[in-house]
Fold:
Amino acid sequence: MNIILTGFMGTGKTSVGRALASALKKDFIDTDEIIKRRAGKTIARIFSDDGERAFRAAESAVAVEIAGMDGKVVSTGGGIVLRRENMSHLRKNGIIINLTSSPAKIYERLKNDGGSRPLLDKPDVLSEIKKLLVEREPFYADCDVRIDTGLLSAEAAAESIIRSLAGRI
Structure:
């Protein structure tokens, strides 16, 4: 059984995923890293060169691959939930954990991470975060467990996930 982390950018999927994998002695997989490695470019460059549609297609291909794996902790891109077929693939052999946080905390984290986020290339980033969170909420709600990471370290969030999955992993 895989443990699949979903959530908006800046909710801690990668850092929590690494901490969780370490605590459980499981392999860690980051879907965005796989996509970047295969494309030979950053996600921002994929969006600018090839468009969001191409990125989402690559994301879907990775979701199919993950369905055939077992015993992994998987950090997904924030938009993987937007295609129902992705979630169907990930659920085949996975427990879906949705990580959440407040828009203000997400904004603070994204501001400090120094990365380029193509979907947030807007004048009012906080308003864009709020808008996207509202749009994506029905997709993020399709999960087995929800963890608010706003006030938690990656390690504390991982511990919370482990407690919530007691007897299932």
Q: What stands out?
A: Strands lie at 2-7, 27-30, 72-75, 94-100, 145-148. The mean pLDDT is 93.
